[in-house]
Each structure stands twice: as structure tokens, then as C-alpha cells.
Amino acid sequence: MTAAPTINEPSGAAVEGPGGSQETSWLRPKGPVLDVLIPLASVAAALVAGGVLMQLQGVAAGSAYGEVLTGALGSTRALRNTSTAATPLVLLALGVALAYRAKLFTIGSEGQFVVGGLAALAWATSGLADGLPAALLVGTAAIAGMAGGAVWSGLSAVMLNRFKASVVITSILLNYLAIALLTWAVRVGVRNDESFTPKSLPIGDAALPDIGGSGPHAGVVVALLAVPVVAVALNRTRFGLRIAVMGSSPGVLRTNEVSTGRMTLGVLACAGALAGLAGYVQVAGVATTMTPAFSTGLGFTAIMVALLGRLHPVGALMAAVAMAAISVGFDSAARVFTIPSSTSTVVQVLIVFFFVIGETLAHRRRR
After folding, report:
1. Stretch 98-125: mean pLDDT, rounded?
2. Beta-ladder partners of 22
3. What are the boundaries of each domain within the chain?
4. How many other C-beta atoms can be found within 10 angstroms of the C-beta atom of residue 316?
5. Which residues are CB-contacts of 19 (< 8 A; sequence separation ≥ 6)?
6. Partners of 210 in the β-ladder
7. Which of 4, 166, 174, 359 is buried deepest, with most CB atoms within 10 A?
């Protein structure tokens, strides 16, 4: 049996990405301490900066943060809201982590999320799904959502393989095309004729039930199960090994007669499938219908979540819960204190800002 090739790469070196571009090792793990310390310090610094901003607005930061904590985690209802908000972020961030590990920097999670939700809704409301048992309808709708997201993400891979088009650019453009498709669908394709505003038909029996009747919807369980599944796929399978090699030395794949084009298609399709599943979960567990406002930027937030989580499935889960808690908590605090509704977004952006500073300083220190 031939031994697997060893990849030796100097710290901070640039490596050639699958698309032929030079990608740096900026996001490479810095060591177990810094890998955990930098995201935690980023969150702490952002909260301090957010507190200063609230003090400047005449709001007692300590009391406001107490309400944020209570609103996010202080009751059964708060926990339900936080877990519901975190669910699509977990699935989206897992897809982003998968692609970014292979140095495929897709920005298209938002479009895949929209198309996945739309594909699931279209299947559930079509005549083909009439008469299916509820359990089978839920399963097939989830598969339809995953297929829609995979196909949409796969378009970037096809354009990269066929025309050498940048994944970053094509995935961004596909986001706009997905939103245009959604706008058409809620007005024509899956329009609800009984609504006076652009709105789709309800997803009906393909909706996800609440856990225990009053808990969060069953999509929370789906997201939690996806974490170990992706972790095992990345760390215990040949596909995961090839993703790691693709992200560090694509030439090694070609040396071992593995097609980088097929790997690119496979990785982006898997990332899109997770985003499409998130779209279905959001429609079936929260919205029940789709409107032009269905696209709320969760796909872009998921990129921050994946980076904060170090492109690790467990890290993505923790970062998604933190981001969701901040969003839900500040929404609750805004009902008690005079806090702008954009405060949670500002804090989230500050987390990324301080994270980038920490990463840059750690990278320079190693050099």
C-alpha cells in the first residue's frame, strides 16, 4: 500500500487555491490557546465597545446587558427563541466551513438558502406531493431543499471548472439571481391567490412540528445532528481528507489522479445542500410561507459564524448560538431600554472587526 503524501508547508506561506489564485494561510489554526482565545476576546471587546456606545446614548450598559442575557437565555421562551434563531445559522455555517476548508471562498450561502427554501416549498405545494403521509412529505421536502441548494451552489463550480470564473464573484451574482427568482415565485410560481400582498402558498403538512408541543421546532434537532455528521465527514472519511489536501496543496490531488474539478463540484454541492436544508428548516419551522423579505442576510452572517468557529463544526455551533443570543437578547432589551434596533448588528460587526485584528496580530507574531 502506498503511503499518503506528506504535505509540508511553511507557516504563513501562500498556497495556490483550486481556482488558481494565491490564498494565504491567514485562517490556519494558531494553536489551541489562540484558537479559542481570539474569538472569545473578540466577543468580549465587542461587548465592551457596545457598552460604551450605549453609555454615550444615556443607557446604563450594565442594566441593558442584564436584559440582553435574560432575553436570550433567562427563560424557556428565551431559550426557544435563541435556539430557533441559531438553527439556520448552524446549518449555513457548516456549509461555509466545508467550502472554506477547501479554499473555495463562496459568498453564495444566502442565495442557496433562498433557493433551498423555495424548492422545498414548491415541492410541498405541488400536485405530486398530494396524499403523501406527513412524515414522508417532510423528508422529501427536506431533500428537495437540499437538492435546490446543491444545484444552485454547483453552478459556481461549473463556471469555475469550465470558464475559470471566480467562485467569489459568481456566488455573489447568484445571490441576486436567487432573490429575483424568489420575487417572481411569490408573485407567479407559488403565489397565494388569497393574499393581497406577494406571498407564497403555505408549506402545509411539510411544516416541522414543535418539540414537546411548546418547544423549539424539530429543525433544532436537525442542526444538532448535522454537527457530528459534518465533523465525522471532515475528519474520518476520504472525502474529508481530500478537502484538507485541496485546501493546502491542490497539486497533490492531481498527482494522485483525483480531479480537482470534481472535488470542487462535490464540495460546493455539499455546502449548498446544507444551505438549502437551512432554507427548508426556516420555511417549515418558522415562516411557513415565503415573501420577498425571506432573504434577511442569514447567509452572510453565517460566514462570520464559520470564521469565528475556526471552520470547525463544533466551533460553528458555539458561534451560531452566540450570534443568535446577541440578536435575540438585544431585541428583548430594545423593548425595555431606548436602544436602536441596529445595536445587535453593530455588536456583531464589532466582533468580526476585533476578530480580524486578533488574527492579524497573531499571524504577524508567528512570522
Report:
1. 97
2. 16
3. 88-313
4. 31
5. 104, 160, 164, 166, 167
6. 217
7. 174
